[in-house]
C-alpha cells in the first residue's frame, strides 16, 4: 500500500511539472474591499453608511474622499462638493454613471430601509479652476479604475466585498465590468463583514476566515488553473425536485425558485421617494450648520408654533429645507426635537395653503426615511389629515398629500392596509378622471404601484377590484412614466397567486400587455414581460390566455435582445410554458424557439443559462417522447452536458434530471443517447458528480451511471477483488455480541484506514474520506423522502433546517453533530438529522459549528450557544415553532456540547426552558482515561475501527489547541496528581458507582503510573471547566429532563452513566438507555444497521411523547419520565434487568 501511494504521489508531481511546461504563467489580481470610483456617492452602500453607521469607527464617505484628496495633493475643502458630485459634468454624467448603475446590483443590496433613488443631478457643477483640477484627477481611470474603457486584457480577478462598507457596491460594479469585458472575475461577499476586518483578523474570526478563503482561491486559481463561482457568505440555498410532480406543481415551484431572479430593481417604482424641490432659493452651508445644532432646531420648533403666520411659515420652510438635503438629512434630530405634532397641526383645514404645502412636504421627506421614521409620522396622526388634503382646491397641496401617502404606503403592507381602511382609494382614483398635470398623474400612478406591491399579505380582492379599472385605463396612457408604473402594478398583482391572476385576466388587459412586449422602450418591455410571465405561472387555462394573444410570436426578438436581463426573463417565461401541458410544449416547438433556447443554454450569461436549463428540463417532464426526440435532434444533449460542470447546484440537478428523463423515454434509442452523452464529455462529468457534496446530485448521478453506463459483470469483479484484498490486509475480528456484526465487519477496515488524523493533511484526508463513506448510509433505504431542507444562519452560525411535509408537533429538535470536535459537519449528518425530522414529525435544526484545530475551544461552545439562543429568542417565529417545546440533541462530541449548552442556558432568564436534552454516547470528562469502558476497549477490540482511546485523546488535544505529543501521557493518566487537589470532583466518577456488570474487579481506579506535573498543569484549566467537562460541574439543578443513551462497546459508556447518576442526584428527571450490543457511532450508519434503525425509531417515539402536542401526550410523557429513572441502577442491578423492567 505504501508503494502504491508513493507511485501516485510521483505521478502527481510529474503532472504538475508537465503542466508548468505546457501552460504559461497564470496572473491574478485580488482586490479586497477596493475603492475604484469617485463618481457616485449615493450608491446603496454609501447610503447605508450615511444612515446606519455614519458616526461609528467604520470608514465613512467623508473620510474616504478626504483621504483620496490628500493622496492627490488637493485641498480637502472640496470634500462636500465631491460628495455632492459637483465635480461631475452633467454632460458626461450619463456616460459616467453607466459604470455604476444601481439596477446591476443584487436585489438584497437595494434594501428600502436605507436605499432611496438618488434625485436627478442639478446643473450646479462648479466651473472654477480648482474644481477642474479635482475633476481631471478623480475622473481619470488611474484614480477611478472602474471608468477604464477597455478591460479585456486584464488578468482574471478575485474581488472581496463586505456588507458594512461604503465601498461594497463599487467592488461588485468592478466585477460586473470585468465580466462584460470577458475577464474571468470571481466575487466573494461577506454578509456580516466590515471594511478592514482583515487588518484585525487575530481578533475577528470572520477576518481569519476571509484570509483562508483568499489563500485557498489563490492556490486553486494559480496552482490548478481552476476558478470559483460567486460565493456569498450566509446564503440560503433552496433545493427543488421535479420528479413526481404534475405540471401545475412544477410551475408553482418554479415560480418560488425564481422569485429573486425575476425581481428586477426598478428605480422608478421604489417603495418610497424623497422630494428634492428644485428652487433657486436654497439655504447655504453656514445656515445649515447653525440650524442643525441644538439651539437652531429649538428655534425652529418655537417659531413653528408662533401665532405670527409669517414667522410660522418661515420656520416650517426652514425645517423642510433641512429635510430636503440630498445627503444625510437630520430626520431623527427633528423628530427628537418634537416638531412632528407641530407639522401635523399645520396640515389642518384652518391653515393657509402655503403652510399646508410646506408642512406636507416636510412630512413627506420624514416619511421617506426608515420604517421607524415613517412610523413616527403615522403615529403622529398625519394620515387622516393627508386624506383630507386630497379634497383641497389647491393642486400643489393635493399632489404633496398624494406623495406623502405614497411614502407611507410604500413602507409595507401594514401601513398600506391602514390607508386603505381610512379610504384612500376612491379620492386617489378621482385624480385619474380629472385634468391634472402630468407630473401629478405620475405620482398617482406611483402610489397605485405601492398599493399593489406587497404579497405578504397581498391587497384584498376588494382593493384589487377597485384598482383594476383604473389600471385598465392607464395601461393605454401615452406618457412613458405612467405606462411603466401601470405595467409594473399589474405585474405585482399577477405575482399573488391564481386568484389575482384571474382578476387581471378578467379586466381584459392581457392583450395590451402582450402588445407591449414589442414596445420601443426597454423599461416597458421588461415590465410587460414580467407581467405576462407571472400570468403563465398560473394554471394551464390562464397560460393559454397569454398564448392565445400570440405572445410566442414576440419571443424571437426578446431572446435575441441586446439586454441580457430581457433574454433571461424571456427564457423564464418560456420555461413556465414548457411546464404546462403537452399542447403548450408543442406550441413552443411550433414557434421555432427550441433551437434558440438550446443555443442560449450552451452560450449566454449564467442567469439565462440557468433559465434555459429549466425550460429544457420541463419539456422532458411535460412533453412526451416525440417532443423530447425533437430536442435531441436539435442537439440538446451536448448543450445539456456542457452545464454539468456548473457550480450552481440547482443547474446541475435540473440538467441531470432532464438527462435521466430523456434516457427513460429513449426506449430502443437509449444507446444512441448514451453514445451522445459520452461523445460530448458528459459521461466524465456525471462520473465526477458521484462525489458531489449535494445528496440529490450524487444519488442521481449514481442512478444514471448504474442504469445506463455500467457493465455489471466487470463492476462486480472489481468489487469482489477489492473486498478480498481489504479482508486479507485489514481484517480484525469484532466482538461477537456486537449488533449487525456481519455488516460492520465489511465496513470496519475501510473506516480504520480513513479515520486516522494526526496532522493537518491527515485531518483533511479523514474529513473528506469519512464524509464520502458516510454517503453509503444515504444510499440505503431512506426514512425521510418527505423532508425539505435548506441552509441558513442563526446569529452568524451556519445551520441546516429540515421541515417534514407532515408535522406531528409544533415542537422542534436542535441537533449538534459529533466527530470529536474535529471531523464531520451537517452534511455528513444529513441522513441522520433528516430521518430524525421525519420520524419525529418536527422541524429540526442542525448546527454547523466551527471545527478544531482551525477553531479551538471554546469556539464550538460559543457557536452552539449563539445559535440556540437566537432560535429560542426569535428564530422559532419564522419556522412557526413553539419555543416551549424544543429538544436539544447531540451525539459523541455533540453530546458534550448539548450538556454544556444546556447548563450555560441557565444564565438566560428571558429564554424559555428546553423541554428535553438528549445525549447519545456523550464525551463528558477527561480526568480519568482508565475507566472500565476505556480498559474494555483495550482488552476486547483494540486495533479495530471502533472508537478507541488514542483517537479520542488526540482529537480532544486538538480541540483544546494543545500539542498531540501529549496523547500517550494523557492515556496513562499521567495528570493523575490533580485527583489529590480535586478529590471531591473525582468522587463524581468513582468506579464504585458503576453497575456491577461495568466495574470489573481487574479494573482499579488508582493504577500506578508515572506522574507528569507539566501535563497536570497544562490540563488543569480545562479538566475542571464545566464548559469542557460538564460531568464535573458542581451544580446541575434545574436542568431540563434528560435522555442519555450509552452503548456497551464504547469507551464513553461509563461517563454517560456517571452523568445520568449525577443528574438524578440533583433531582433532574433522567432516562438512561443502555444498548448492550450497541457501539459508538452506530447511529451514523442507521440506514445500514438494523439495530440503529430500530433504536432511532424508538428514540423518536420517546421524543414525540415528551415534547407532546396535546394534553394527553404530555400526560403520557410525564408517566414515561417517572418510570424511566435510575432507582434500579443505583442499587447496582444490571442494565439488562432494568431494560426488561421498563
The number of helical segments is 56
Radius of gyration (CA) equals 34 Å
CATH-defined topology of the domain at 784-1000 and 1007-1084 = Rossmann fold
Per CATH, the superfamily of the domain at 784-1000 and 1007-1084 is Alpha/Beta hydrolase fold, catalytic domain
Strand sequence of the main sheet, in spatial order?
Answer: 5-6-8-7-9-10-11-12
On the 0 to 100 scale, the average pLDDT is 80
CATH architectural grouping of the domain at 784-1000 and 1007-1084: 3-Layer(aba) Sandwich
Number of strands: 12
Spatial shape: globular
Strand content: 5-15%
Structural class: alpha/beta
Query: Which regions contain 5 or more consecutive residues with pLDDT less than 50?
Result: 121-125, 233-284, 726-730, 753-761, 1001-1006, 1110-1142
Largest sheet: 8 strands, mixed
CATH class of the domain at 784-1000 and 1007-1084 reads Alpha Beta
InterPro entries: AB_hydrolase_3, AB_hydrolase_fold, ARM-like, ARM-type_fold, Arm_3, Armadillo, Importin-a_IBB, Importin-a_IBB_sf
Protein name: Importin subunit alpha-4
GO biological process, one term: NLS-bearing protein import into nucleus
Domain IBB: 220-283
Write structural notes for this entry.
The protein is of the alpha/beta class and 1142 residues long. Among the domains are: 28-116 and 134-223, Alpha/Beta hydrolase fold, catalytic domain (Rossmann fold, 3-Layer(aba) Sandwich); 288-422, Leucine-rich Repeat Variant; 582-711, Leucine-rich Repeat Variant (Alpha Horseshoe); 784-1000 and 1007-1084, Rossmann fold (3-Layer(aba) Sandwich), CATH 3.40.50.1820. Helix content is 54%, strand content 7%. The protein contains 56 helices and twelve strands. The strands form two sheets. Strands 5-6-8-7-9-10-11-12 form an eight-stranded mixed sheet, with helices on both faces. A four-stranded parallel sheet has the order 1-2-3-4, with helices on both faces. α32 (594-602) crosses α33. The radius of gyration is 34 Å and the shape is globular. Mean pLDDT is 80; it is low at 121-125, 233-284, 726-730, 753-761, 1001-1006 and 1110-1142. InterPro entries: AB_hydrolase_3, AB_hydrolase_fold, ARM-like, ARM-type_fold, Arm_3, Armadillo, Importin-a_IBB, Importin-a_IBB_sf. Residues 220-283 form the IBB domain.
Amino acid at each position: 500500500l505504501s508503494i502504491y501511494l508513493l507511485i501516485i504521489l510521483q505521478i502527481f508531481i510529474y503532472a504538475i511539472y508537465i503542466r508548468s511546461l505546457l501552460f504559461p504563467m497564470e496572473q491574478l489580481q485580488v482586490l479586497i474591499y477596493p475603492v475604484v470610483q469617485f463618481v457616485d456617492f449615493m450608491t446603496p452602500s454609501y447610503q447605508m453608511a450615511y444612515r446606519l453607521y455614519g458616526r461609528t469607527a467604520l470608514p465613512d464617505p467623508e473620510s474616504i474622499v478626504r483621504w483620496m484628496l490628500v493622496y492627490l495633493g488637493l485641498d480637502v475643502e472640496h470634500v462636500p462638493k465631491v460628495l455632492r458630485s459637483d465635480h461631475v459634468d452633467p454632460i458626461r454624467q450619463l456616460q459616467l454613471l453607466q459604470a455604476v448603475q444601481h439596477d446591476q446590483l443584487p436585489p438584497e443590496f437595494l434594501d428600502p430601509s436605507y436605499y432611496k433613488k438618488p434625485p436627478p443631478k442639478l446643473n450646479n457643477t462648479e466651473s472654477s479652476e480648482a474644481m477642474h483640477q479635482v475633476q481631471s484627477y478623480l475622473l481619470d481611470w488611474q484614480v477611478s479604475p472602474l471608468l477604464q474603457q477597455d478591460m479585456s486584457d486584464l488578468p482574471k480577478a478575485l474581488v472581496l466585498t463586505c456588507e458594512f462598507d461604503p465601498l461594497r457596491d463599487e467592488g461588485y460594479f468592478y466585477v460586473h465590468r470585468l465580466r462584460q469585458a470577458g475577464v474571468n472575475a470571481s466575487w466573494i461577499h461577506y454578509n456580516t463583514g466590515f471594511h478592514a476586518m482583515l487588518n484585525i483578523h487575530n481578533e475577528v474570526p470572520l477576518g481569519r476566515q476571509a484570509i483562508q478563503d483568499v489563500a485557498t482561491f489563490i492556490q486553486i486559481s494559480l496552482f490548478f488553473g481552476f476558478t470559483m463561482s460567486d460565493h456569498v457568505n450566509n446564503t440560503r440555498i433552496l433545493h427543488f425536485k421535479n420528479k413526481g410532480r404534475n405540471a401545475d406543481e412544477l410551475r408553482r415551484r418554479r415560480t418560488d425558485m425564481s422569485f429573486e431572479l425575476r425581481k428586477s430593481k426598478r428605480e422608478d417604482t421604489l417603495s418610497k421617494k424623497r422630494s428634492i424641490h428644485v428652487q433657486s432659493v436654497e439655504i447655504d452651508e453656514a445656515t445649515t450648520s447653525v440650524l442643525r445644532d441644538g439651539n437652531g432646531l429649538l428655534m425652529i420648533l418655537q417659531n413653528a408654533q408662533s401665532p405670527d403666520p409669517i414667522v410660522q411659515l418661515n420656520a416650517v420652510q426652514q425645517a423642510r429645507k433641512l429635510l430636503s438635503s440630498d445627503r444625510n438629512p437630520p430626520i431623527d434630530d427633528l423628530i427628537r426635537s418634537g416638531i412632528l405634532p407641530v407639522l401635523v397641526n399645520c396640515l389642518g383645514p384652518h391653515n393657509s395653503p402655503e403652510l399646508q404645502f410646506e408642512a406636507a412636504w416636510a412630512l413627506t421627506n420624514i416619511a421617506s426615511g426608515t420604517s421607524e421614521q415613517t412610523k413616527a409620522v403615522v403615529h403622529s396622526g398625519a394620515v387622516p389629515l393627508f386624506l383630507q388634503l386630497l379634497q383641497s382646491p389647491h393642486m400643489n397641496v393635493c399632489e404633496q398629500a398624494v406623495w406623502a401617502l405614497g411614502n407611507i404606503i410604500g413602507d409595507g403592507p401594514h401601513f398600506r392596509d391602514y390607508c386603505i381602511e381610512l379610504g384612500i382609494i376612491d379620492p386617489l382614483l378621482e385624480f385619474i378622471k380629472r385634468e391634472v398635470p402630468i407630473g401629478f398623474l405620475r405620482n398617482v400612478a406611483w402610489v397605485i404601484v405601492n398599493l399593489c406591491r406587497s404579497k405578504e399579505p397581498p391587497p384584498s380582492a376588494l382593493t384589487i377590484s377597485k384598482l383594476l379599472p383604473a389600471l385598465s385605463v392607464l395601461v393605454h396612457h401615452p406618457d412613458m412614466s405612467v405606462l411603466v408604473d401601470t405595467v409594473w402594478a399589474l405585474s405585482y398583482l399577477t405575482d399573488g397567486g391564481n386568484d389575482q391572476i384571474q382578476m387581471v385576466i378578467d379586466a381584459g388587459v392581457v392583450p395590451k400587455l402582450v402588445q407591449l412586449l414589442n414596445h420601443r422602450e426597454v423599461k416597458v418591455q421588461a415590465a410587460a414581460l414580467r407581467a405576462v410571465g407571472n400570468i403563465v405561472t398560473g394554471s394551464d387555462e390562464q397560460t393559454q390566455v397569454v398564448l392565445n394573444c400570440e405572445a410566442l410570436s414576440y419571443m424571437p426578438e426578446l431572446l435575441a435582445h441586446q439586454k441580457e436581463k430581457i433574454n433571461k426573463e424571456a427564457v423564464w417565461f418560456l420555461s413556465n410554458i414548457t411546464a404546462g401541458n403537452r399542447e403548450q410544449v408543442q406550441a413552443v416547438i411550433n414557434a421555432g424557439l427550441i433551437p434558440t433556447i438550446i443555443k442560449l443554454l450552451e452560450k449566454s450569461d449564467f442567469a439565462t443559462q440557468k433559465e434555459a436549463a429549466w425550460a429544457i428540463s420541463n419539456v422532458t417532464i411535460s412533453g412526451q417522447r416525440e417532443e423530447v426526440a425533437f430536442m435531441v435532434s436539435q442537439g440538446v444533449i451536448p448543450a445539456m452536458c456542457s452545464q454539468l460542470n456548473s457550480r450552481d447546484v440547482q443547474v446541475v440537478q435540473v440538467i441531470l434530471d432532464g438527462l435521466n428523463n430523456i434516457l427513460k423515454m429513449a426506449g430502443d434509442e437509449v444507446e444512441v443517447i448514451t453514445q451522445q452523452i459520452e461523445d460530448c464529455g458528459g459521461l466524465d462529468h456525471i462520473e465526477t458528480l458521484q462525489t458531489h457534496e449535494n445528496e440529490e446530485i450524487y444519488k442521481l448521478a449514481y442512478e444514471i451511471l448504474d442504469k445506463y453506463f455500467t457493465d455489471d459483470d466487470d463492476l462486480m469483479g472489481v468489487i469482489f477483488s477489492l473486498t478480498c484484498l481489504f479482508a486479507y490486509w485489514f481484517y480484525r475480528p469484532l466482538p461477537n455480541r456486537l449488533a449487525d456484526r456481519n455488516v460492520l465487519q465489511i465496513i470496519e477496515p475501510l473506516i480504520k484506514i480513513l479515520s486516522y488524523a494526526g496532522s493537518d493533511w491527515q485531518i483533511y484526508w479523514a474529513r473528506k474520506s469519512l464524509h464520502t463513506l458516510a454517503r453509503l448510509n444515504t444510499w440505503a433505504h431512506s426514512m425521510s423522502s418527505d423532508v425539505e431542507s435548506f441552509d441558513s444562519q442563526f446569529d452568524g452560525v451556519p445551520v441546516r433546517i429540515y421541515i417534514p411535509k407532515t408535522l406531528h408537533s409544533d415542537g422542534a429538535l436542535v441537533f449538534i453533530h459529533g466527530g470529536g470536535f474535529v471531523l464531520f459537519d451537517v452534511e455528513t449528518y444529513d441522513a441522520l438529522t433528516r430521518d430524525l425530522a421525519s420520524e419525529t414529525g418536527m422541524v429540526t435544526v442542525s448546527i454547523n459549528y466551527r471545527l478544531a484545530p482551525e477553531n479551538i475551544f471554546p469556539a464550538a461552545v460559543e457557536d452552539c450557544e449563539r445559535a440556540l439562543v437566537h432560535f429560542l429568542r426569535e428564530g422559532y417565529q419564522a419556522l412557526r415553532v413553539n419555543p416551549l417545546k424544543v429538544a436539544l440533541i447531540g451525539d459523541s462530541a455533540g453530546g458534550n456540547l448539548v450538556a454544556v449548552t444546556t447548563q450555560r442556558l441557565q444564565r438566560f432568564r428571558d429564554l424559555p426552558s428546553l423541554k428535553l436534552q438528549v445525549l447519545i454516547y456523550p464525551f463528558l470528562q477527561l480526568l480519568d482515561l482508565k475507566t472500565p469502558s476505556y480498559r474494555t476497549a483495550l482488552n476486547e477490540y483494540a486495533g479495530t475501527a471502533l472508537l478507541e482511546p488514542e483517537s479520542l485523546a488526540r482529537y480532544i488535544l486538538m480541540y483544546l489547541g494543545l500539542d498531540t505529543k501529549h496523547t500517550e501521557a494523557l492515556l496513562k493518566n499521567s495528570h493523575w496528581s490533580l485527583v489529590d487537589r480535586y478529590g471531591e470532583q473525582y468522587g463524581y466518577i468513582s468506579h464504585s458507582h458503576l453497575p456491577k456488570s461495568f466495574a470489573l474487579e481487574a479494573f482499579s481506579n488508582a493504577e500506578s503510573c508515572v506522574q507528569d506535573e507539566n501535563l497536570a498543569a497544562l490540563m488543569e484549566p480545562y479538566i475542571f471547566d464545566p464548559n469542557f467537562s460538564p460531568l464535573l460541574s458542581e451544580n446541575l439543578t434545574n436542568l431540563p429532563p434528560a435522555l442519555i443513551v450509552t452503548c456497551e462497546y464504547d469507551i464513553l459508556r461509563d461517563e454517560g452513566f456517571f452523568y445520568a447518576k449525577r443528574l438524578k442526584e440533583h433531582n433532574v428527571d433522567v432516562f438512561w438507555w443502555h444498548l448492550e450490543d450497541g457501539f459508538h457511532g452506530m447511529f451514523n450508519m442507521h440506514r445500514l444497521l438494523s439495530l440503529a434503525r430500530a433504536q432511532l425509531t424508538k428514540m423518536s417515539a420517546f421524543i414525540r411523547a415528551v415534547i407532546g402536542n396535546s394534553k394527553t401526550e404530555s400526560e403520557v410523557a410525564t408517566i414515561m419520565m417517572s418510570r424511566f429513572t435510575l432507582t434500579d441502577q443505583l442499587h447496582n442491578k444490571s442494565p439488562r434487568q432494568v431494560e426488561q423492567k421498563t
